[in-house]
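SUBJECT: A protein chain and its fold
Encoding: whole-number codes for local backbone shapes
Chain under study, with its fold:
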Amino acid sequence: MTEATGMIHSTAIIESGARIGSNVAIGAYSIIAAGVEIGDDCWVGPHVVIQGPARIGKRNRFYQFGSIGSDPQDKKFHGEQTLLEIGDDNMFREFVTVNRGTDDGGGVTRIGNDNWLMAYVHLAHDCIVGNHTIFANAASLAGHVRVDDHAILGGFTLVHQFCQIGAHAFTSMGSVINRDVPPYVTVAGNFAEPKGINTEGLKRRGYSAEKILSIRRAYKTLYLSGLPLAEARNQIEQTTGVDDELRTLVDFIDRSERSLIR
């Protein structure tokens, strides 16, 4: 496939009302619907359908047979004006599907910057994805799921609606997530259970041995101490004055609505 050169293939369909930035390549038989805005330097491969309303930033790549910005798969949806927002530098591989939001769920599905969505990934309506995440093949989010920065979802991970995945969390291949996964934690299984912290991921992102030790101690308090969640949370909070990483963990516990995987 050709790199982005600003060329639009003669068989591509660009509907009236679509806005295309500079140096955007659009491949054969792709469809860009009305209400779609595509930023500069994006590349859209062949046989991609992008529907709107959708706002797409710069330097994104959409591989063949993707379906981006289609109607939410929600029986309560009846054509309301909802939105898909995509930031910059994201990769959408083959057969990725992303739905717009719903009126009841805030009206927007949002994807941040520099995320990798491998083949057959599905993001349902009203999902919020941060920055620098990786979704391995066929990972799927139900509606209203939130995934924070640097999280990695292993292949065929399935996430129940309204769940949250914390920053730097890791889900093993085939994980079934039915509750919230705290920051830094690795989970595996059906249903998923905690297996430790994402040590390798933290090392790769420059976390010092001291900070990793602090996170590991917090994990032991949360999962191995036998304390009720509220007491474990309060004990972890006592050290947040010197550890911003633990403040991230405490804040996640406080906003959790489905309870934590424990």
Remarks:
- The two ends are 46 Å apart (CA to CA).
